Amino acid sequence: MKILVLNAGSSSQKSCLYSIEENTLPQHSPEPIWTGNIDWTVAKNEGILTVKANEIKQEITLDIADKAAAIPTMLNTLITGKTKVIKQLSEINVVGHRVVHGGIKYTEATKITPEVKAKISELIPLAPNHNPAHIEGIEAIEQALGDVLQVAMFDTAFHQTIPLENAAYPLPFEWLEKGIRRYGFHGISHEYCVKRAAEILNQPLSSLKLINCHLGNGCSLTAIKDGKSCDTTMGFTPLEGLMMGTRSGSVDPAILIYLMGEYDLTPENLNTLLNKESGLKGVSGISADVRAILEGMKAHNFRAQLAFDMYIHRLRSQMGAMLAVLGGLDALIFTAGVGENAALVREKACEGWEFLGLKLDKTKNESFPVDEDIATKDSSVRILVIHTEEDWAIAQQCWQLVTDN
Hints:
Elements: E1 2-8, E2 12-19, E3 34-39, E4 46-53, E5 56-63, H1 70-76, E6 94-99, E7 110-111, H2 114-122, H3 131-145, E8 149-154, H4 164-167, H5 173-177, H6 187-201, E9 209-215, E10 219-225, E11 228-232, H7 253-263, H8 267-276, H9 279-284, H10 290-298, H11 302-326, E12 331-335, H12 336-341, H13 343-349, H14 362-365, E13 372-373, E14 382-385, H15 390-404
Parallel strand pairs: 1-6, 6-8, 9-12, 12-14
Antiparallel strand pairs: 1-2, 2-3, 3-4, 4-5, 7-8, 9-10, 10-11, 13-14
Helix pairs in contact: 10-11
């Protein structure tokens, strides 16, 4: 069975193709036979498509003014050139999509129908950095593969277990009835990582209190108890919570009222400001990429240092909030692009928690850990770096849907 996965982020499109025996689903992630990753943050005026297959790595420059051509270009590498792995796209049996916002209606992997597609579009105002990219991906597949089975997995699904008192906002009750509530995001990643943590720790997930730190261009923390999400930092949209690459995270809402009144900013202006021009990019003036921020710090750039310090302060503050919800902690998990690769972010995030008995082994932390415990032997709290496998989690659900039918 050939399963194609499209995982659209706020600044990237990560895709892979799995070839799996139809009667046997591997317990752990097999290597995809092809990967294609589009990154719009590496260069200022272009995108970079990186394709890996047949032990070959190929880079293709994409026109930032014609983003619609990016996915067709990527799909073409499956059937042409040195990265060709299939004869024609029709060999693909099912396509799985990570979808950021599904509201409260969708709680499991769902076949994409016109109704589902319409709902994803309807929720674009709540996930403006993501849901449009999901629609682009779905429509690109429709154009390239016709009526192939497409499946959506929703980042909001894992957070359906959050108690109402944690999910509701202190607004008049009628707004809760209209759907104004905390939904939470990155659910596919959070769910995968906590299950993997239980395997690494060799303990039942139901016995663990965990904080999972998904730190990428988008960032969120989730508190997990008894295997269930009980609180998370992102809320009604993926804008709330931590400081991120281009997103502000939580700010005083009165600031927005002030900007509208004093500077005549429109809702569209505010949306651009908060989602596209803030966070690390807005404060540093350099980039949304942590790697560029770290380089700026080495050059003694004041704004780069300020952006990093703000990022760490807000991360640690929200870790404290998750800790209060859990009432204890067995393991702290770091995952996603920044969480897995930025040793300095992990080091600074772990400072000041000695009162919990949390102790980071700096040598382990700097040795490029993957699915490893980087706490000292005498640490009361384990510190894990886990490579998130959202793509494999999506592929598993696609395989299940196909084999069940």
